[in-house]
Amino acid sequence: xxxxxxxxxxxxxxxxxxxxxxxxxxxxxxxxxxxxxxxxxxxxxxxxxxxxxxxxxxxxxxxxxxxxxxxxxxxxxxxxxxxxxxxxxxxxxxxxxxxxxxxxxxxxxxxxxxxxxxxxxxxxxxxxxxxxxxxxxxxxxxxxxxxxxxxxxxxxxxxxxxxxxxxxxxxxxxxxxxxxxxxxxxxxxxxxxxxxxx
Length: 198
Prior knowledge:
17% of the residues lie in helices and 68% in strands. Strands 1-3-4-5-6-7-8-9 form an eight-stranded antiparallel β-barrel.
């Protein structure tokens, strides 16, 4: 029969082994999650945006929109930053005002596999918009929410993972300036793009 001291020492040794095993399993799980994560960059070319304002201004889009993406993917979840822009002309009682519009955003993206490398995704986030004009008194800016949804085809490129995507994005903000306002303004556009893993 073993002494109580021997039994206590044995239990302590067993507990130490179990703690080490639990730590090893945790580290392995964490490392496999990191291994499946990946960064990516992307570029999208979009339609001229459809714009609605809180004033009587009418918009006349000028050219196409563009968006540069930088993201990190963890399984089906991604965090995505973007910088985009477009040109537009707003027509109101002051006449025609040409704007260069820039938008920076941060968003969470959730992808749903559909099979055969296709995925559907949804995106929600925050953005900041700057509407610059030739005359500073016409410049406006503001922040708000953005929502997007689309489809993506995952490809294995020469340099790693990538995708082709098409999405529809809606963003809204209360745009105000020093001496000008467009009020509650929404911007809607389609974008076709490509991402490459980094």
